[in-house]
From TrEMBL:
Protein name as annotated: LysR family transcriptional regulator
GO molecular function terms attached to this record: DNA-binding transcription factor activity
GO CC annotations, alphabetized: cytosol
Residue ranges constituting the HTH lysR-type domain according to the UniProt record: 2-59
Entry coiled-coil feature ranges: none
PROSITE patterns: HTH_LYSR
PANTHER family xref list: HTH-TYPE TRANSCRIPTIONAL REGULATOR YBHD, LYSR FAMILY TRANSCRIPTIONAL REGULATOR
Source lineage: Bacteria, Bacillati, Bacillota, Bacilli, Lactobacillales
Amino acid sequence: MIDNYLLEELVAFSEHKTLAAAAKYLNVTQPTITRGMQKIENELQVTLFNRQKNRITLTDVGKVAAIEAKKVLA
């Protein structure tokens, strides 16, 4: 089962668009967000994020997961 805090990290990333902004919003470090993202992907066994050289974005599945995570947290 995925921890609610990991869902909060996913939602924060989807709303703030960068790791740094999501980390700042949640008052944690950027590596904390990165580890959380990896943990969510490992638990769900799907790719939620497109990782490019200097940019990370949500995949289509990641966008749906963020919407559902927001519903769970509401």
